Amino acid sequence: MIRKAIKFIGIALLLYLLFCLATPFIPSLKERSIKNQIHYLSKILDGGYDNTLQQRFPEGKLFSNALLALSVIEYCDSNQKSDTEYAEIVDHCVMRIQSQRATQNFNKDLNPEYGIFYCGWSNLVYSRYLSSEIFAHSQVKAEVIAESQKIVNEITQIQCDSSRILRSYSGGSWPADNLIAISSLKDETLKRNWIESLLERSDHKSGLIHHSDGEPSIIRGSSSALLTYCLDQSGYEKIAEYNANFQSIFIDTYLGIELVKENADGSNRMDYDSGPVVFGYGASATIMNIKAQASLGNSRSKVTWAAMNTIAAPINFCGKKFYLLKQEPMLDLFLLWGCVEL
Q1: What is the pLDDT of residue 231?
Q2: d(Cα 199, Cα 218) in Å, to the nearest integer?
Q3: 36: burial class by Cβ within 10 Å (0-12, 13-18, 19+)?
């Protein structure tokens, strides 16, 4: 009896692992995964979980709502979906992004108002939403249009004479936040000049853009993965060369799985941006790289996502999917944002 029970458990575990690994390669499984994640994440954010994330991370409320909104928009665009259900989810995210609670950790006196982290991520949501078919079903059209135009006007005015790195917060500037804002704009000349300004300020011999403006010679895996994605989305002409440099410094491949070092020297230094770092490989860097490489057509992004999907122990039933027993929803959001790109 015990042998049969062990055998049954072993077969069930094997099937579970196979389903997890197969998810990005089988359209119906990937569709189910995305829809159930959207359903779960929208429910918990509607229930106020973004306020809990705000207590754990300085930008938790803004960031969580931006990632969910972007995931929904990109999913609908790639699958030619246009209905009120998904528009309502994005509308709720937009209202929370514009709420006083979302802006309270940002300095209103910065230029642009609230700083480039807030403006960059919020306008990325607005610009993607404005160009999406589901925007026709939005109930907050006026708010989206007005806020997007306000941000674009402020940035254009600031950068009209010469491009500069804009501050994320009162205490400093991060190039990745600037590039998020760049990728949300339509002015090609402004985008090109701003990117060149970021590249020129970096002192790293690789030519990769630095992590923090206060340390122009230091590059990091998590920010470099995000920078690579944003450069591709911004139409940077030398993106293939840039990505090759990024890969040569930070990425190691095992059985088709791309693991990304957080620090160029392979050390285990970590902070809020990096997430856990194990044997030199960063969780945030590896997961963000899935998005970056998928946008560039790298087929290994599916293999890496499949591995991360399995390691994170997904539970997917009753129309909901979550990871790590609901303990780390930011992981859920980043894996969802990566999956819609595959």
Answers
A1: 98
A2: 13
A3: buried
Tokens of 252: 């190691």
Name the band, by pLDDT with cuts 50, 70 and 90, for residue 126: very high
Paired with 281 in beta bridges are 261, 278
What φ, ψ does residue 202 adopt, rounded to 5°? -80, 135
The DSSP symbol for 332 reads: H
Q: How many residues does the chain have?
A: 342
CB 198 within 8 A of CB 209: yes
Q: For 272-329, write each residue's pLDDT tens digit.
A: 788 899 999 999 999 999 999 999 999 999 999 999 999 999 999 999 999 999 999 9
Residue 266: left (phi > 0), alpha (psi -120 to 50), or beta?
left
**DSSP 8-class letter at 136:** G
Of the two residues 44 and 4, the one the predictor is more confident about is 44
pLDDT of 212-245, one tens digit each? 998 999 999 999 999 999 999 999 999 999 999 9
Which residues, at least 6 apart from 91, have a Cβ–Cβ distance to it below 8 Å? 138, 139, 140
- Cα–Cα distance for residue pair 154/20, rounded to 1 Å: 45
- CB contact at 8 A, 321 and 315: yes
d(Cα 48, Cα 127) in Å, to the nearest integer? 25
CB 73 within 8 A of CB 128: yes
Phi, psi of 251 (to 5 degrees): -105, 130
Residue 105 contacts residue 59 (beta carbons within 8 Å)? yes
